[in-house]
Write a structure and sequence with these properties.
- The protein is an all-alpha fold.
- The chain has one domain.
- 80% of the residues lie in helices and 0% in strands.
- The longest helix has 36 residues.
- The two termini are 25 Å apart.
Length: 147
């Protein structure tokens, strides 16, 4: 296999898939934790448990998976010389949506940590849809390459 990665391409591709799956799993689960956290009385043992779960999920799983997804993804893009492909531009736009969502989720975690969340359970359940829809769009663009 020719290209930037040579024979390492299948390994980088596999690691990209695993890191993206991990990132998406966390991004789909975190807003659900926020929805459950809304039900807990601020300062209660349950609320404090949610705070620990949310912090660990974001710092130990979601953040490293996001960084690895970008690292492996950029290596694959360089290997495949995808920069000029129209489908790739669509993927980058959806990745921007994912990144903004990731930042919003991190901000909300800080608000919950300070017992300062202002939104209701339904809001966080709806926020769960954003990474899911972006993920579907990205997979369709990468596999089908419609343009």
């Amino acid at each position: 296999m020719t290209g930037f990665l040579g024979l390492g391409y299948p390994w980088v591709s596999a690691l990209h898939i695993v890191s993206v799956m991990t990132w998406m799993t966390g991004m789909l689960y975190l807003p659900q934790l926020y929805a459950y956290h809304c039900r807990a009385e601020p300062g209660s043992a349950q609320s404090e448990t949610f705070k620990v779960m949310e912090r660990r999920l974001l710092s130990i799983i979601i953040n490293p998976a996001m960084l690895l997804s970008w690292l492996f993804g950029l290596a694959l893009a360089a290997h495949l010389d995808a920069w000029s492909e129209t489908w790739f531009h669509g993927k980058l736009a959806l990745l921007a949506v994912m990144q903004v969502t990731h930042v919003a989720f991190a901000r909300w975690r800080r608000q919950f940590a300070e017992d300062g969340h202002r939104r209701g359970e339904r809001f966080y359940r709806r926020a769960h849809d954003i990474p899911g829809l972006a993920m579907i769009g990205i997979v369709l663009l990468v596999v089908v390459k419609p343009f």
